[in-house]
């Protein structure tokens, strides 16, 4: 789904800039900059949402468990660091599409 959106708006921005008489190379550069800003803005917001969900879930499960290892993980900010893996994998997957 994100791939289709990226490709759709990538072509839309590039067509818009070329129809206004800009150079093709300048259109490609502007296209990469705009799509990059939109993509990384989406990833940033997605990262914040995932981070809050993972931290709340981890604290909930650690309070319900009788194991003390969970408490040490919460104190060491482990959920905060592990929550960045999902946006990292999404970014890793879609960067080649962005620079196509």
Describe the structure.
This protein is mainly α. It has one domain (2-98). 85% of the residues lie in helices and 0% in strands. The chain has 5 helices and no strands. It has helices at residues 2-19, 24-64, 69-75, 78-82, 85-98. Helix 1 (2-19) packs antiparallel against helix 2 and helix 2 runs antiparallel to helix 5. The two termini are 17 Å apart. The mean pLDDT is 83.
Key traits:
5 helices, mainly alpha, 100 residues
The proportion of strand residues reads under 5%
Average pLDDT for all residues: 83
Number of helices: 5
Distance linking N and C termini? 17 Å
Give, in order, the helices and strands. Answer: HHHHH
- Judged by helices, strands and strand pairing, the structural class is mainly alpha
Radius of gyration: 20 Å
The residue fraction in helices comes out at over 70%
Low-pLDDT stretches are none
- Backbone shape: rod-shaped
Could you describe the largest sheet, including whether it forms a barrel?
none
Q: What count of domains describes the coordinates? A: 1
Number of strand segments: 0
